[in-house]
Amino acid sequence: MLKHIGYIAGVALLGCALLTAQSVRDVNGRVFEVTSRRGIENLEVKLTPPRSSDLAIRLASTNQNGEFHFTQVKPSKYLLEVSQGPNLLYRNEIDASTADSIEIPLQKH
Amino acid sequence: MMLLAMTGFAGFVMVVGGMWLVYKQKIYIDKEGNTAIGVKLPGNFSFTGNYPALALFALGFFPLIYPLHEVRIPPDYLRVVNVKIKGTVHSQAYPALVYAAAVPYPVVNDGDGFEVAVPIINGSGDYKVLLIVDGHVLDSQSASAAAITQGEIPVQFKPVIVDPPQYKGEIKPVPASYQ
Fold first, then answer.
1. Residue A78: which domain range?
2. C-alpha B164: how far from its chain's center?
3. Which residue has the higher pLDDT, B175 or A13?
4. A4 touching B (Cβ < 8 Å)
5. Considering all CA atoms of chain B, what is the largest pairwise distance in Å, rounded to the nearest integer?
6. What is the domain-level CATH number for residue A43?
7. What total of structural domains would you count in chain A?
8. Is residue A58 domain-resident?
């Protein structure tokens, strides 16, 4: 009897651990110029959850390689926006539960 | 305002007092007879001493209603009720400022004017007027309530010159679930 209880508790703990591990994930991406494929730095990247959600708004900037990183993002759909100062350059909806690396090509004016 | 309030109060006293006097039949002019005095007018009209009470009651309506008529809310005046918009901010970036505007005024062309209706604030406080483009506060001006002339406060923003974006990408419309 005690053996069964221990087995059930172990399975439950493992399930909880797996659920916790899946509850957040990192979302990475890169913003680059489409022709040269060079990364564009100092852009503002914003992740906005749906209005009905209580998830946090996330902000990040691109590094010198055009890369941005959001750590521990809860799985959901987000509105991803890339801006340069007051100029909006890119907007699209992403699914953070499936998006591993987001490629954002921009054209030079 | 105080005069209107006093007038209204006097009208109220006249109306209520007139009703009370009529009810109690308390107006007696002939003290010796202790009866209401009678007055006969040409044309077979007659009045008893109770009629002054009725006249008091009727005449009281004018000072009662006149202040209400004078202080009625004009159609272009919104009654200001003290309402607080409350909430909590969770942010790793501080200091943060929270602003609320009932109806922001969209400006879409260079040189367009703007008019933002605001509630009247007591005393000589200032309104904070922000020029926001795509979530970025480009300019902030103060509009003093003491500078109201003909229901308007002039505000002049600094000219804003924004370098055109160096890059362009795909900009999809905002889905309804984010609006």
1. 24-106
2. 45
3. B175
4. no
5. 105
6. 2.60.40.10
7. 1
8. yes
Decide if A4 is inside a domain: no
Q: Which residue has the higher pLDDT, A31 or B136?
A: A31
Question: Token match 């991803």: residue?
Answer: A80
pLDDT for residue A25 is more than 60: yes
Which residue in chain B has the smallest CA separation from A43?
B167
Residue A5 lies in a domain: no
* A88 chain-B contacts, CB cut-off 8 A: 134, 171
Tell me whether residues B167 and A33 touch, CB distance under 8 A: yes
Note if the bond before B95 is cis, omega within 30 degrees.
yes
* B165 touching A (Cβ < 8 Å): yes
The answer to the question of residue A3 being in a domain is: no
Band the pLDDT of A44: cuts 50, 70, 90: very high
| Cβ partners under 8 Å of residue A106, min gap 6 | A31, A32, A33, A34, A40, A82, A89, A90, B167, B168, B169
Query: Which residues on chain A are in Cβ contact (under 8 Å) with B171?
Result: 88-91
Query: ipTM of this complex > 0.85?
Result: no
Give the global pTM: 0.58
Q: Which residue has the tokens 């439950």?
A: A12
Please name the member of A51, A79, A107 whose beta carbon is closest to the beta carbon of B168: A107
- CA of B94 vs chain A CAs: smallest distance (Å): 14
Q: Give yes or no for B96 touching A (CB within 8 A).
A: no
Give chain B's count of helices (H) and strands (E).
3, 5
> Does A61 score more than 90 pLDDT?
yes
Pairs of CB atoms within 8 A across A/B: 67
Dihedral pair phi/psi, residue B59, rounded to 5°? -70, -25
